[in-house]
């Protein structure tokens, strides 16, 4: 409902092992794929993926800003390793800028315009203009409609209205690629192999890359995903390497599946999966052993 009505909201997912009750005290990254397309029908959600408690704090601000700016739900995909265990951290940096409300029309704006169409794509970025409850103007109110509607928020079952609205929502998601947190890229020495990971897998990846270099003379580059939708840096990273190992803490290679949906077909064959599903925090040796085995070392 919030996706289609376009109501801002932030939801934290502290992922643990499933399905069903699963292992309540074990960590996982098993909600990635389901959250990306959560709901029936065609949906695409913004996800932020912290790797530390400090980043959890900082991404909370990012999440609320993105939710307001894009008038949508934003999911922060933490995990039980972060949510339950003890971590050391530098002191958190208190935000110094106000929350970004995005495209909000004031009474003065409405005086000039005379009215507005809530779901009209005025700027070509898929994001409509909105008013906040309590705006003192007779044209400020609109119907927040979860059923079929046109750009004026009026009920509609017209096929063209529905198609236009769904295409606009997709444009909004594409616009978000330029605003979500960028990935972090760490380079090796002329590496042909790339590693992609996210969340708390980061710490094991850092150690595993040292093991690969020192014990097997295998150089790797590393990209840590921090958000979905994927930014242009992710596509460029995959294009620059012969093989890409996607490391994640779930059985079904969920992030790899999202990457496949996003990539040009000729790049998909470069992807390999390293899946860790024990529920224990990911360790470096498991990654090193799996990757060297797949490399024939």
Could you characterize what this model shows?
- By secondary structure, this protein is an alpha/beta fold.
- It folds into three domains: 2-84, Thiamin diphosphate (ThDP)-binding fold, Pyr/PP domains (Rossmann fold), CATH 3.40.50; 107-176, no CATH class; 184-294, Rossmann fold, CATH 3.40.50.
- The protein has eleven helices and ten strands.
- The chain has helices at residues 2-5, 32-36, 53-70, 80-84, 107-113, 159-176, 201-216, 232-239, 254-262, 265-268, 284-294; strands at 9-17, 23-27, 46-48, 73-79, 184-186, 193-198, 220-225, 227-228, 243-248, 271-275.
- Strands 2-1-4-3-8 form a five-stranded mixed beta sheet.
- Helix 7 crosses helix 11.
- The longest helix is centred in the N-terminal third of the chain and has 18 residues, at 53-70.
- It is elongated, with a radius of gyration of 22 Å.
- The mean pLDDT is 95.
């Amino acid at each position: 409902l919030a996706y289609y009505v376009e109501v801002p909201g932030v939801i934290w997912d502290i992922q643990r092992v499933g399905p069903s009750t699963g292992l309540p005290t074990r960590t996982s990254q098993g909600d990635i794929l389901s959250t990306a397309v959560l709901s029936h029908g065609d949906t695409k959600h913004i996800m932020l993926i912290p790797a530390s408690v400090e980043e959890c704090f900082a991404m909370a601000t990012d999440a609320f800003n993105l939710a307001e700016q894009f008038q949508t739900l934003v999911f922060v995909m933490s995990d039980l390793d972060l949510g339950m265990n003890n971590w050391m951290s530098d002191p958190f940096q208190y935000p110094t800028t106000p929350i970004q409300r995005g495209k909000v029309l004031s009474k003065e704006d409405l005086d000039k315009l005379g009215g507005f169409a809530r779901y009209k794509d005025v700027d070509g970025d898929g994001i409509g203009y909105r008013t906040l409850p309590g705006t003192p103007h007779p044209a400020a109110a609109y119907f927040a409609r979860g059923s079929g509607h046109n750009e004026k928020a009026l009920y509609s079952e017209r096929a063209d209205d529905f198609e236009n609205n769904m295409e606009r929502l997709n444009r909004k998601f594409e616009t978000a690629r330029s605003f979500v947190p960028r990935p972090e890229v760490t380079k090796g020495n002329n590496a042909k192999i790339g590693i992609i990971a996210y969340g708390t897998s980061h710490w094991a990846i850092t150690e595993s890359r040292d093991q690969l270099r020192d014990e097997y003379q295998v150089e790797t580059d590393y990209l840590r995903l921090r958000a979905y939708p994927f930014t242009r840096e992710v596509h460029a990273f995959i294009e620059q390497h012969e093989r890409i190992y996607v490391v994640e803490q779930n059985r079904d290679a969920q992030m790899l599946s999202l990457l496949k949906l996003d990539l040009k077909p000729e790049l998909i064959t470069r992807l390999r999966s390293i899946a860790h599903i024990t529920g224990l925090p990911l360790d470096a040796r498991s990654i090193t052993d799996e990757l060297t085995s797949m490399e024939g070392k």
